[in-house]
Model the fold of this input.
Amino acid sequence: MTPPHSTDDAALVALCRRGRREAFGRLYDRYARLVRAALFDPGRDAAAAEDLVQETFLRAWRLLPRLRDPSRVGAWLAGIARQVGREDRRRRRRGRLEFRGATPDAAAVADESADDLDAVLAAVARLPERERLAVHAFYLDDGGLPAAAELLGLSRSGAYALLRRALDRLARRLSGEPVRPEEHHP
Done:
């Protein structure tokens, strides 16, 4: 089965490559939420996060000629966003700056109630990258499971299994259950 936006995305990419900025605007409208999800970091303030979204789309515009499979532009944008996010985290670590709303450590999160949104967001941020992306794509992108599957390059059943593992891991962390060593992620 063809992912929901793949044919339309390919047509938009073709228009973008011919310099049609309004087509890129449509891609932005379609994938900005997904890019924000890929960039999610509770230690980053909203203005900085929005700057990174803009940086992601600027890079995408410049790199558009290199996109091999235009029907997978959503996954490609998420990959660029993950790289932009990694660069931002390295920059923040190097600068040793203190940020408002820094993520609490794992012990503090385990002590907070599951109803506390900050605890949930911090726990999501510590998921392995693919699980974190599955959670964000499923809950923040209008496409739900199909969007998560496309982003991660999985079948729907594979995306569902990944999402189920992520939610199980979140439930264990938020309930205060001990986390196995292989489940610790920064």
The chain has a mean pLDDT of 77.
